[in-house]
Structure formats: structure tokens, C-alpha cells
Design brief:
This protein is an alpha+beta fold and about 325 residues long. The protein contains 10 helices and 15 strands.
């Protein structure tokens, strides 16, 4: 009988498909980042406890995580124990999900238990190829109906201590605001201002109310919002071109002694005031047809080399969320 904890032939085939879809997914990239800079590859994924549409997806999820080939993975809705699913599915792993998913692929796998029920528990997890210096689970539950937490880990990357926060915030907006404030307080008190920081997870922030709060209080950047959309780039270039032509026309008119119209004399101010419209966080939910921007990655002290959402047909069946994959480099690189 096949050991439920060991990869099957089907799982390896699934990993091949998922890898192909990963490589085919469109990514936002910063071409100014040095090709030789050492990159930190991170991913965040709400795995829906390894079950979607009442089907056991945990083996396919492991194939998917391996296909991401990330150095550090932030996971939400991870089960430490589930008697219910163990009884429902014949090949359900007999070990905790974070341990099962890590396998031999990640040297470290830590779990932060948040919600405890009679038949099991679930929470957040971090998988890391780098040795963890420390890890702690912080309870940020706002009311008795939802148990929420932050899993705060620290690891060594290329001789630099990097802090990471794996988060899963609540379903109610006022609760999310208070939980975000608790996160800000935690980071201010436990993370040095000059230390690289990654915050990733399911923010449930479908109205996009928390981003500004985190940016202003922590100086972080969201991995997609730091890039210009293609449409905005075209509009900006067109605006700059028009402004430059106005400047040339004003200089020509000045040289001939003709008084320039008001809209021409203000051309230089137009150049100075040109603005950039940045891309919003990516749509990740529901995975089958992403509409809401629930999952986020915020960074500080790290440059964003690339970022992408995995949403191919094979990925869509694994969870109700789509994963985010990003490549980061240290600011000094």
C-alpha cells in the first residue's frame, strides 16, 4: 500500500504541470535589479486546509508548493491535526500538514496554532530553506468568534537577519484594523528599523483599507503596488512627450519675440507635476476567477525583483486562493 506521507507518481506528474503553469504565468519584473544579485524567493498561500470541493487536495498542494520552488513559504489555514479529514480520506497524511508539506524540500517547518476544536486545530505555518533564528506565534484574536495569529520568524539570508510575519486577518473590517494595529505594534517593538522585513498572508482586505495604514506606519511596500501598470506607463510617457513639446514650442516662440499662450508657459510645471499611477495588489480570490485582492506581500529593506500570481487551470483546483510568488533582493545588492 502507498504510504500517504510519500509522493506518488500522480503527485510527481502534477508537479510537472504546475511548474509549467508557473513558468507561463505573467510576472511583473524590475529590470534594474542586477541579474547577479542573490535572490530571496518567497511565496504566500492560503491552502484551505488541504480540501476543496470536498476533495483531498493535500498531495497536489505539496506538488504545487514544490513547483513554486520558494526559499520561504508563508501558509495560512494549515491543519496541525484533523480527525475529521483523517476519517474521511483514505490517504490523508498521519502527520501535521506543515511537516507533510515541507517534506525534504525545506529544512525548517514551524506552525502557529490559532484555532483549536475538538476534532483538530489550524493556523499559520512558515517553511524555510534557511535555519530559523527564532519563531513565535502571537495571538491577535479580536473576538471569541475568530481565532487569529501572527507567526513571527527570523532567519539568516546571506549573512543578514530577515524578519518575516505570516498573517491571516479576520473577516470583519473593524477587527482587521485592530489586528493590523497589533501587527504594527509587534513589528515596532521586535523588529529593528534597519532589518529586512517580509509580511505575507491572507489579509481579507477586500476593500483595500489596510495598505495605507501599513505603508505609513511601517514604511513597507506591497510587491505589486510598487510597479507601474502598462496603461499608466503609456499614459505617463505620452504626457511627458506632450509636455516636452510644449517646452520646445515656448522656447521657439520666445526666440522670435512672440508671447506664448498660457498653456505653453506652464509646460515645465506640467513636467514637474507628472504622476505615476501604480498597480494595485493582485487579485487572488477566488482562485477559479480572481476578483478580490485578499492576499498580500509587503516588504521593507528589500527590492522587488519580480512578482506573480499563479492562476493556471491546475493551480485553480488546489485551493480557493491563488498563491503569490515574489523574488526579492537585499537593498544593498
Amino acid at each position: 500500500m502507498q504510504d500517504a506521507n510519500e509522493p506518488s507518481v500522480n503527485e510527481l506528474d502534477e508537479m510537472t504541470l504546475l511548474t509549467q503553469e508557473r513558468d507561463a504565468s505573467e510576472a511583473i519584473a524590475d529590470e534594474t535589479v542586477s541579474k547577479t544579485a542573490k535572490r530571496l524567493r518567497i511565496a504566500t498561500y492560503n491552502i484551505h486546509k488541504g480540501v476543496t470541493s470536498r476533495r483531498n487536495r493535500i498531495h497536489d498542494l505539496r506538488a504545487g508548493l514544490h513547483a513554486l520552488d520558494a526559499d520561504v513559504v508563508f501558509l495560512q489555514e494549515v491543519q496541525g491535526r484533523s480527525d475529521l479529514h483523517a476519517g474521511q480520506f483514505e490517504n490523508w497524511p498521519d502527520i501535521a500538514q506543515h511537516t507533510f508539506l515541507a517534506g525534504d524540500h525545506w529544512a525548517e517547518a514551524v506552525y502557529g496554532r490559532n484555532s483549536v476544536r475538538e476534532d483538530g486545530d489550524h493556523g499559520n505555518a512558515v517553511l524555510s530553506r534557511f535555519p530559523l533564528v527564532s519563531h513565535e506565534n502571537i495571538d491577535i484574536s479580536d473576538h471569541r468568534f475568530e481565532s487569529r495569529g501572527l507567526l513571527h520568524c527570523e532567519f539568516d539570508f546571506d549573512g543578514v537577519k530577515v524578519h518575516c510575519i505570516c498573517a491571516h486577518l479576520g473577516l470583519f473590517e473593524e477587527s482587521r484594523v485592530r489586528q493590523a494595529d497589533a501587527m504594527i505594534a509587534r513589528i515596532r517593538s521586535h523588529v529593528p528599523a534597519d532589518a529586512p522585513l517580509v509580511i505575507a498572508g491572507d489579509f481579507n482586505d477586500w476593500r483595500h483599507r489596510l495598505g495605507k495604514r501599513l505603508v505609513e506606519n511601517l514604511g513597507v511596500h506591497e510587491v505589486f503596488s510598487g510597479h507601474e501598470t502598462r496603461r499608466a506607463a503609456l499614459a505617463r510617457r505620452a504626457g511627458v512627450y506632450v509636455a516636452q513639446q510644449r517646452v520646445r514650442l515656448r522656447r521657439t516662440l520666445d526666440a522670435t519675440g512672440i508671447t506664448a499662450p498660457a498653456e505653453v508657459t506652464t509646460a515645465e510645471a506640467v513636467v514637474a507635476k507628472k504622476t505615476r499611477r501604480l498597480a494595485a495588489p493582485a487579485r487572488t480570490f477566488p482562485a477559479a476567477f480572481p476578483l478580490l485582492r485578499l492576499d498580500r506581500v509587503y516588504v521593507r529593506g528589500l527590492r522587488i525583483a519580480s512578482a506573480q500570481v499563479l492562476s493556471g487551470p491546475t493551480w485553480r483546483k488546489l485551493s480557493d486562493h491563488a498563491p503569490i510568488l515574489a523574488e526579492l533582493v537585499l537593498d544593498a545588492a
